[in-house]
Amino acid sequence: MNKHSKLLMVIVASLIILVTSIFFSDMRALFNQARYQELLETVEEEILSANIKIVALTKGTRGLAGASGVIFKREGQTYYALTANHVVTSETDLDQTTYVVLGHDTLDFSDVVEEKGFVMDVADYYKSLPSMSIEYTSKIHDLAVVSFTTDKEYPVVEISNESPMHKDMAVTMSNPHGERNKVTAGKIKSKEYVTFSDNEESTVDLVVEHTALISVGSSGSALLNEKLELVGIGSVAKFENQTRPF
């Protein structure tokens, strides 16, 4: 067998493995959604409205990108939320960046245009939403505390006193791939905490992997236990979903 034939066989085998991996990941996700349907419905009814979307506004922004966060505290009309550090520090021009918060019931600009049929400047729309303040950040833990003020009523998710353990139930609330307020279920995969590095001088300590389906836009998402308590914040995604626990 010549060199080119061997290379072709390796490529074909790799593609088969990749497709199989994607297929079984999707099947596992569908299985988890069906298996834990009752729990997911409870999350949607009781605390999904604590899920927020964070949008960064920079010069010339179209306001299309976004990430996730979860409300954990309230003082009057000011809400405090947890998200990932990289959500609020990844912009190249932070001095010219502002952040706004979309509550679970606040429409994205594209939805406003589609549902209400009027056209306005995208930046003007997002600037009309509650502005977000950054209260605290931790690069090594990829965590941030942010705040915003609104007269709307949102629930608060309690932070668990117990850390997530191997095979524990895991539920996420996030805004993946431009979708809003998605709830998924899975299990904690890690037997112990790990340290994640993207080889770009960015390291996140104390990370756990889980099988609940998340995607781009899920950074900063809530990871919940069966008691609907907060046990972690969505951090990074490599080959498995990874979350920074408390």
Automatic annotation (TrEMBL):
Listed InterPro entries: Peptidase_S1_PA, Peptidase_S1C
Transmembrane segments: 7-25
Keyword Kinase: no
One Pfam family cited in the UniProt record for this chain: Trypsin_2
Keywords: Hydrolase, Membrane, Protease, Serine protease, Transmembrane, Transmembrane helix
Gene3D superfamilies: 2.40.10.120
SUPFAM superfamilies, per the entry: Trypsin-like serine proteases
GO molecular function ontology, one term from the record: serine-type endopeptidase activity
GO biological process, one term: proteolysis
Protein name: Serine protease
The species this protein was found in: Streptococcus suis
